[in-house]
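Please predict the structure of the following assembly.
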Amino acid sequence: MLRKLFDIFSSLKLTVVLLSLSCVLVFLGTMAQDPLGLYLVQHRFFQSLFVDYVSMSAAVKKTLQMLHIYVTPTTAADVMAAPYVPVFPGGYLLGWALLVNLVTAHFRYFKATKKKIGIALIHSGVVLLLLGQFATDLLQVESHMRLTEGETKFFSESSRQSELAIVDTTQPDRDQVVAIPVSRLSGTFQHETLPFSVEVKAVFQNATPEFVTTANDPAAASQGVGPRLKFRQEPPVTRLDSRDVPAALVELRDGEKSLGTWWVSNWLAEEPLRRLILQQSGPAVREALARPQSFTHAGRTFELAMRPMRFYEPHSLTLLEFRHDKYKGTEIPKNFSSRVRVQRPDTGEDREVLIYMNNPLRYAGKTYYQSGYDDKDPRVTILQVVRNPGWLTPYLACVIVSVGLCLQFGMHLLEFARKRQTS
Amino acid sequence: MKMLKRLVPWLLLALFVAELLAIMFPRQQTGFHYRDFGRLPVLLNGRVQPFDSVARNALLQIRGTASVPLGEKKWFEFWKHPPKLRSTEWLLEVMLKPEIADTRPTFLIHHPDLLGELKLHDKGIEKSGLRYYSFNEIQSVVGEIGEQGRRAGRVDAQLRTSFQKEALKLAQAVFLYHRLKNSLRPEDSADFAAEIAAYQSVIKPGLEAAQAREAGQPHDEQALAALLRPFKRYDALSQQAYPLIVPPLHPETHPDEWANVGTALMDALHHGEIPTAMLFFARLANAYREGNAGAFNQALTEYEQWLAPRFEKEVRKGRAEFFFNHVQFFLRATITYIFAFLLAAGALLTVTVTPGLAETLRRSAFYLVAFAFLVHTAGLIFRMALEARPPVTNLYSSAVFIGWGAVGLGLILERVYRIGQGLAAAAVIGFVTLIIAHNLALGGDTMEMMRAVLDTNFWLATHVVVITLGYTANFAAGFLAIAFVLLGVFSKLLRLPVREAEAAVAGKASAPVERATIGQALQKMVYAIICFATLFSFAGTVLGGIWADQSWGRFWGWDPKENGALIIVLWNAAILHARWGGLIRERGLMNMAIFGNVVTAFSWFGVNMLGIGLHSYGFMDAAFKWLMIFFVSQFILMALCSLPLRFWASYRGGDTSPGQRNGTARSPQPLAA
């Protein structure tokens, strides 16, 4: 029985089947990106054991649509709402199966001869690559840092996740922060440092702002921007170049007493989004948006905000200069570069670095890439910040596999040439 | 007779070489020195290029051709050369004699709904099923074209219907034409040299008056008004003029500060005088309008002499690129590949009947492919030198490079097995890829500047070149597999022993030493090429990941283009493992290799049509149709390949089924080949 299983797992037939299924999976995952968006596709197709039925149908429908056969496309919302019915092996299942297949096949066939060195190298490189990518999937954290010239930051911000932050600003020299990820927002919660409890009345994964026009609008909040602005739920976005902007309505209570309700949203916290609101609003709303939403309770001052989740560092980055040139007479970007100052108070380190395209800064386990700019404000740079402990594995794997392939096929070629010569 | 057989290949080659030489060393210019004008450097799309490139790319965008034919000829009358306007001649007309340019059949409009909407069905001239219109013919509907274009422009690029795309394209063409008209002088200027002289004379008094007014002192209102009028005119002109034709005033410190006509004339206010180059252009304009070739050529020569010491590099670039445009290396290669393919196919078909003729044909094909390959290589290297970049920088150059690689591979194979299939496959891929490249070039400048993230010769030279070689190898394997299927099903060639065939075509009566048949030789070729395809695809894909890691911190992002490359790698691996495991034999290998064509075409072209991802080049309707036709043709070939052996001409009769005649064709041992 065990023997039989081993034979199946180590068979080349299985290899071919798995490789072919992988081709199909990658193809369908590519097709599904248009209707579902990259993020959802990664989760449902590549970082899963099985692909669910609805995601699969989205991919198939997109393929039909490309062939000019009209079908109603499946949306991201359909996928989220539908029950999870596995119909096709996902990336993790195929990846692990290939790994097992590869390792067992080596036990079955491998003989330590000179001829097999190439194959062994190729396969060990592939194993390294697969494991490295699996580790990356689990461990990689991506965030970004937006800096205006002259600005210093000790933290980077998540591009995807947001948090509800309650900041105690009573003391002038330091803030005390309590932050809750948006994904965990629900019900009522308390924190020992806060003299009140937070009751979440509504959470929208994606929201759009609206002006409050009538006096007794039930969707309006009582505090902060509440009398001027409210938020409406939107379906989640799927396009690669856009993202969800969450919002929440919270009520703060001290025992039985309500301190009021607040709308919080990334719309109010992030500069480009704020700008969009400001463009369309009158003086009253501008006045309301001018300051952070703050209040005083029990002799302490608090600020309330929903903002991109922050990752604090022991070091800081200061943007000294940002350059963004275009080719003369065109809109084609020629180069971006950010001259930054890296400071680390605990070690006294202090140096200047130039970050530009294809030349990131690797520092303290993080890598800072020149990633973007703000088309409204020429002094702003956007750096992509990535923590990926496994970043070196593809480099190694590439070298190992390429050497293996060259050895293997080079030997074939030599043999072939020799045969042709002698015949 | 034997002598003739030897001579024919050389004569054919000499014919093609002579044609190339005639084009490379043209006759002395008479009349207007158009070629010299075409060489003058200007700045457009962020790079220095000759007027001729501006003209050529604009004409390709507007008309879809690089010249404007003025006479008619039937498609088979290749000996006739009706008069035509070359690109530079056309540009000069548009810039300086717009009233004549407006009568030329310049605008290509072929969407039937658009023609109906604009009521143009009964106007224009038809050529090869396409309708061309002069500006005069569409003038009455220019307003509507603009409106349709604006409407289409508001729709998201991916959602546009083919009507909207055509409308937008036409609106852009009309706009571009309008800009070209105003690129050397204002369209309505009667005597440009006089106009400029008049402007020069009002600059000084006008500026003095302006300064006086600024200081609150009494000033000459008339002098101010006299300056303000042309200033407004040139301000408007600076919005319209297209190429930046006036070289920088301070090339040492600001080498990028080229200006268009309008800007240069406006800037004259800062410097107090009109740039020297502008005076030359004014003289050229007047001489051209008066039809005075002598004065035109004189002004041209003087301008060249003025440029030479100041803009040595730019002048050299302009001349080099003009030469490149003029010789049209890739077009020459395309034509030669077609002839070579016909000859190679003829050689394959006649090898069993008349071996002597077959060898003459094969040899001719070999010389022509080798010659076309050299021209192709020269074009590739010339392009690399012009751009100062590795060979592949965009989709256009990837097509050129894939063709080049495949032809090189085919030539090598032909050296190993001298039977003609290598040549046939090479010529077909070379021809098809260059046709694809030609169509991609219709989008505009193919040497555009690289955006910041791509601006790295290291990664362009490694990742891009390696992955493109991966595509190349896959196509080469796929096309050889197609040759296998076609020859196997329709001819008896596959069962012919290679040495016999080689001996037959070489005219020598040597006994066959190697018993392998052509079918088995093809199988070996396909297998070997797939091995290399695996190597290049894998290395290229991983290098791409590493580049991505370097530039935005993500080794793998499941971007459509990355996925396409990954599918190729997986498919190649599947083919190799299937063979090592004995799951497939000859025909299975061929079928998988043909499907490799589909996979590779999807990765190379198909993913660009999904309209998503960082690598998208834009939506290409026509290309999509052709891609589908290609896919269908591949599936038909696969079905053909799956026919039972009794339908195969090569294996009918039973005794020579593939893989049994010779033990080497099967590989019983897994994990080795």
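Chain B has three domains: 48-73+82-181, 192-312, 328-443+451-665. DSSP finds 25 helices and seven strands in chain B.
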